[in-house]
């Protein structure tokens, strides 16, 4: 294998073989191939795409670069959910315990923030003592024991993806559909699941900016799932505004707890129930969509979903008492409000800029060594279509570092457009 020849082949738009992909990635893992050559291949893929056979080979090589979980012994249906990333998207924190309470086993590998989008791991780590880095044996035991574990990608699972993922983040190759597909599906297949539901975020705050690209990604992911015998459903949801009433770290966990207690924002709970219904139907626990949604409402109403969340927190090192006192935790030292300068209706929200503002506040990292601020975030009082009067509070942003409020405020002031016409925001996309 001559790495430069494979790069040239892909650069010129030609197909590379399964063997070439395997040799190149394995060479990168063994450090025989340097980062600059892997970066060059990633860029060639970014510009020229990959064929179905190339994508299948990419998934296979990344999947088999590490260990695969096996839950075939489990009596319950084993499944997971994945979101392509958004602002204010805390659905996993609600949905995981909810589905586990329904009797579905959830071995969930989650991620950290990527670009302007938030990460489930960063949010979970704001729970005092909560450990996301547990070994695979403990992960298996926890899933077997209580039906759910939510951890980060370990060194044993898809190490090729982990290294390539980090490189994509700094080389401007995140939005490549083949690379997104390979990254998502290799990790999900490695979990040993039988079912998967995908939430493909679409709009100005998502990596997929339009529905056509979102459909291409959805079709690609579904084909991979089918090829690896995983029941795969796709839901397309809007990211033209943040999801829920908050975006940030602890504030999103607090909102998730509200959701598990039956007080979640309508849009957050609608997405949660839609995704949950897909897996409940796959598992055969309900016969219709309406029955599946009713089951989820019941599990929240009777407290079983919240109890499962508490159980997971305790298993992973957290103190249930902290969750009981969740409104007292991580109080921000500083806050500012953004007020409307005119009357009218919210026309649009620049969710990308709002996501960047959360990073400025301390919710994300500009470099890998940055520490996040659990107190940081944004609370939204008005969203698309809402009527506003002059001096109404549109949002409040907060953290515990004054120097970070100013750059966030600049972005947030540019993020909301007000006009005279009432508009509608469509949450689910076709």
Provide an overview of this structure.
It is built from 17 helices and 13 strands. It is globular and about 65 Å long. It folds into 3 domains: 3-48, Transferase, Pyrimidine Nucleoside Phosphorylase, Chain A, domain 3; 79-324, 3-Layer(aba) Sandwich (Pyrimidine Nucleoside Phosphorylase, Chain A, domain 2), CATH 3.40.1030.10; 335-425, Pyrimidine nucleoside phosphorylase-like, C-terminal domain (Aldehyde Oxidoreductase, domain 3). It has helices at 3-11, 18-29, 35-48, 52-63, 91-102, 120-124, 136-146, 159-171, 177-190, 211-227, 250-260, 266-282, 289-301, 304-315, 320-324, 351-361, 405-413, and strands at 79-83, 106-110, 148-152, 195-202, 231-238, 246-248, 334-339, 344-349, 377-380, 387-388, 393-399, 416-419, 428-429. Strand 4, helix 10 (211-227) and strand 5 form a beta-alpha-beta unit. The protein is an alpha/beta fold and 430 residues long.
């Amino acid at each position: 294998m001559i790495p430069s020849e494979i790069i040239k082949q892909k650069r010129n738009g030609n197909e590379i073989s399964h063997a070439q992909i395997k040799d190149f990635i394995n060479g990168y893992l063994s450090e025989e191939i340097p980062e600059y050559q892997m970066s060059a291949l990633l860029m060639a893929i970014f510009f020229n795409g990959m064929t179905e056979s190339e994508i299948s080979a990419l998934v296979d090589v990344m999947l088999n670069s590490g260990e695969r979980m096996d839950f075939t012994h489990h009596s319950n249906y084993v499944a997971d959910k994945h979101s392509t990333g958004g602002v204010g998207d805390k659905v996993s924190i609600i949905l995981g315990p909810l589905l586990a309470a329904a009797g579905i086993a959830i071995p969930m590998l989650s991620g950290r923030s990527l670009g302007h989008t938030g990460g489930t791991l960063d949010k979970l780590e704001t729970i005092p003592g909560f450990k996301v880095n547990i070994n695979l044996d403990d992960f298996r035991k926890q899933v077997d024991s209580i039906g759910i574990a939510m951890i980060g990608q370990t060194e044993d699972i898809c190490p090729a993806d982990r290294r390539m993922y980090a490189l994509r983040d700094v080389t401007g190759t995140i939005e490549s559909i083949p690379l997104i597909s390979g990254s998502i599906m290799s990790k999900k297949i490695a979990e040993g699941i039988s079912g998967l539901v995908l939430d493909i975020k679409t709009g100005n705050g998502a990596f997929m900016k339009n529905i056509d690209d979102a459909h291409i990604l959805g079709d690609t992911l579904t084909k991979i799932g089918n090829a690896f015998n995983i029941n795969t459903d796709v839901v397309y949801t809007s990211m033209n505004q943040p999801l829920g009433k908050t975006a940030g770290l602890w504030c999103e966990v607090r909102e998730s707890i509200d959701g598990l207690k039956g007080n979640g924002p309508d849009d957050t709970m609608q997405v949660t129930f839609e995704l949950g219904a897909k897996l409940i139907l796959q598992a055969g626990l309900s016969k219709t969509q309406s029955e599946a949604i009713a089951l989820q409402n019941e599990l929240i109403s009777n407290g079983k979903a919240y109890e499962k969340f508490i159980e997971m927190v305790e298993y992973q090192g957290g103190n249930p008492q902290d969750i009981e006192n969740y409104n007292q935790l991580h109080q921000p030292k500083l806050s500012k409000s953004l007020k409307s300068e005119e009357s009218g209706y919210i026309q649009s929200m620049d969710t990308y800029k709002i996501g960047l503002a959360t990073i400025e506040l301390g919710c994300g990292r500009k470099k890998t060594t940055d520490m996040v601020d659990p107190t940081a975030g944004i609370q939204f009082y008005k969203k698309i279509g809402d009527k506003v009067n002059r001096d109404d509070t549109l949002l409040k942003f907060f953290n515990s570092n004054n120097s970070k409020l100013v750059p966030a405020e600049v972005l947030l002031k540019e993020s909301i457009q007000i006009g005279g016409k009432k508009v509608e925001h469509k949450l689910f996309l076709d």
